[in-house]
Task: structure prediction
Amino acid sequence: MVNFNFNNEKPENKLDLKKIMLVIGVAGGTGSGKTTVVRKIQQQFPKGEVNVLSHDSYYRDNKDLSLEERRKKNYDHPDAIEFDLMVDHVKKLKKGISIYEPAYSFITCTREDKTRLVHPREVLIIEGILCLTNPELRGLMDIKVFVDCDSDLRLSRVIQRDIEERGRNVNEVLERYEKTVRPSHLQFIEPTKRFADIIIPQGGRNQVAIQILTNHINQTLK
Result:
């Protein structure tokens, strides 16, 4: 271990099946900097060469519940993710079959009607706080990464994100953090660090670790 559619396009096979798809899982606590790490990896490759599947897209639909009930659900628990669908989509992409990735709204806490068409590419990054908790999904990954970050910094990022992007106030964010985010992190997310091949401290600020990972991806593809 290293410590450091809206469109009407029809699915079609884009991947040369003679090539091997490299699947990378990127996990870590909420606000740890996973998205930044993934974005910086993507920037090292030609546009469109690296696909990203976020497990945020695969949260279970809760349209049968009221908005108040939906907001009280624990979205940091593995049961909140429709892993069966996500595993099926990753398997199809590995076989060269395009998929429609669902979309999820954190404002309404429901799955949206739109989808995103995803074609197979040589590199697939699976990103999400819980993506290393599911054994079957984990088994499809060639490289497993855990983005580590101090809890106080993660909390400040969660507060900013939930206020700006998810329509919550400070009290709501802090209450959710104490009741579900922190306990779930300790119970489900932090323990998955032991599955990681690479641990990246300081998240997206760790340029050295990101470059090492990018170099490893390039070497593997060659």
Observations:
- The radius of gyration is 17 Å.
